[in-house]
Amino acid sequence: MAGRTIAKLLFNQAQSNVIRPQFANSVKFYSAAPSYEFIKVEKVGEKKNVGLITLNRPKALNALCNGLMTEVSNIIEDFEKDNSVAAIVITGSEKAFAAGADIKEMQNNTYSKCISGNFLSHWNRVADCTKPVIAAVNGYALGGGCELAMMCDIIYAGETAKFGQPEILLGTIPGAGGSQRLPRYVGKSKAMEIVLTGDQVNAVEAEKMGLVSKIFPVGELVSRAIKLGEKIGKNSPLIVSMAKESVNTAYETTLAEGLHFEKRTFHGTFATKDRMEGMTAFVEKRPANFTNE
Ligand SMILES: CCC/C=C/C(=O)SCCNC(=O)CCNC(=O)[C@H](O)C(C)(C)COP(=O)([O-])OP(=O)([O-])OC[C@H]1O[C@@H](n2cnc3c(N)ncnc32)[C@H](O)[C@@H]1OP(=O)([O-])[O-]
């Protein structure tokens, strides 16, 4: 087939919901639409501007094996580059968001192997994403599953959700943020209780302690998370990423430094067209038309 025809075919595929549109211009990297073993990937919402990642390893309750987390990191990277994606939702099944890191895969690891391979370092890709990421948690979110949810920006839970850090029961400790992010969400006493006992907390308790922002019936959860992604997607992507960075800075720094960062970032919005458009639209009593500039 002539090169131009292949390029055109690829371009058409990219237009019709294929996830790596950058490949449309690049025949040499492209063999087929990417296929995933452990996740399902779609673009959803009325404008197809929400990237939906469904963890899909049902026989192991979505245990987060290396292959699954590599696929999640890759698609986060792709969604980040894709200008049509405004927000990302990560979900699992009704039984399990994820029952933790894969215990069978880890069982025979040694200290030396963990150090030399920098075990789990690629998990950070989710926390490092510059676009908003929403976790929609039904069922178990245990160990690495709870940590994955906490790497997201907002956690919505189904009524049956159960959160926990049961690593202590396995003779280890949280290794992907559980001992660091959980106290920032729920405070020291509750975090200690969860981490030191391995006890699970249900959706209502998780909402009460500030881990979860809203609870929905199990069957409604994912569509409500997608709606949230669409709502955020009505705002300027540029300003959304600045707002996200500013909130995240609150977890990384002192109050004085954080306030300084916020002020400078706020000043920075005055260098954007979208800030001018937002305020002008308000004054002219019309909806804003943001252009991501
Ligand atoms: C990231 C950094 C550090 C993090 C560390 C961790 O996350 S440590 C982990 C922290 N998490 C935990 O300690 C939770 C471990 N999981 C559990 O305690 C229970 O599975 C349950 C209470 C979630 C559900 O009970 P239930 O009676 O409804 O279901 P069931 O038990 O029959 O499971 C069905 C199948 O899934 C399999 N599988 C499940 N989880 C894992 C896993 N993490 N791994 C591998 N496989 C797992 C299970 O073996 C079984 O497969 P099999 O043997 O039939 O081929």
TrEMBL record:
Q: Which Gene3D superfamilies match?
A: 2-enoyl-CoA Hydratase, Chain A, domain 1 (3.90.226.10), Lyase 2-enoyl-coa Hydratase, Chain A, domain 2 (1.10.12.10)
- InterPro entries in alphabetical order: ClpP/crotonase-like_dom_sf, Enoyl-CoA_hyd/isom_CS, Enoyl-CoA_hydra/iso, Enoyl-CoA_hydra_C
* Database matches in Pfam families: ECH_1 (PF00378)
* TM ranges: none
Q: What is its EC number?
A: 4.2.1.17
Q: Which UniProt keywords apply?
A: Lyase
Q: Does the keyword Aminoacyl-tRNA synthetase apply?
A: no
> Which family does the entry's similarity section mention?
Belongs to the enoyl-CoA hydratase/isomerase family.
The name on file for this protein is enoyl-CoA hydratase
Which organism is this entry from? Nicrophorus vespilloides (Boreal carrion beetle)
